[in-house]
Amino acid sequence: MLVYAAILGSSPCDRISLKPAPPCLPNLSSHESSNALGLLRLGKYTEWFNDVFSTDISEICGKILNMLVEKHGCETIEIVIPELPEMRAAHIVSIGSESLCSLTPHCEDGKDVKLTYDTRTNLAFFRSFTASDYVAAQRLRRRIMYHHMEIFKKVDVIVTPTTGMTAPIIPLSALKSGETNMQVSGNLMRFIIAGNLLGLPAISVPVGYDKQGLPIGLQLIGPPWGEASILRLAAAVEEVLWACSFGYGA
Question: CA 66, CA 94: separation in Å to the nearest integer?
Fold first, then answer.
């Protein structure tokens, strides 16, 4: 929280940055902080917990939610996030168009030869998007933001697995020429699109490992300027995991 308070703020070099509200700095070890956590409403979209490649992910993330309810008195509320296919489409068009616009000056006059093949392939794909596609994506973005703000009237934090699969195997050929695998990228980014597209604060907390020993994360998504809440909740997740590791609070 102290680091966040020190670095937050708008940048005079970035015309689109916004001025945040003053930070709230709770005492994470205080009794008042524990009571405040008990007031948090955690939004769980069960379809997302089931839409994973390994049951290890859903089981471990679900266990953490139950621990937050038992140890801190948080409330879990079932939610529905509508228009997921539209959100994915708006995301790829928006991020593709904006990254292409930002990188184009660095790729002119043969400069793109310094980029890896996978990056050049992605940029070529992004060039297929039209201005009309981008405008349509921004309309979808506004509508999806409306849906999420309606959800945040019912919950304080949306909780999801961080990724739909654990770390994939990287082929040896990728070390030389890179790799473009949209299917794998989609599986990895399945649950982080909302934060990326809408600019919502989000954090991933390591919560365990699958049977292959690969790490699993729990993602906490907050409303605009909700960094204090998700940082406080992330600290609580680490606390309950630490207590379980050493057998405290059982």
Answer: 36
Yes or no: say if 207 and 216 are a contact pair by the CB < 8 Å rule: yes
pLDDT in tens, 1-44: 566 666 666 666 666 666 666 665 555 454 455 556 778 999 99
Is residue 74 within 8 Å of 100, Cβ to Cβ? no
Query: Cα 172 vs. chain centroid, distance in angstroms?
Result: 28
DSSP single-letter state for residue 109 = T
Residue 54's φ and ψ, nearest 5 degrees, are: -135, 135
In 3D space, the residue among 31, 27, 41, 32 whose CA is nearest the CA of residue 73 turns out to be 41
Is 75 in contact with 40 (CB distance < 8 Å)?
Answer: yes
Alpha helices (runs of H) in 38-128, residue ranges in sequence order: 46-50, 55-72, 84-107, 117-126
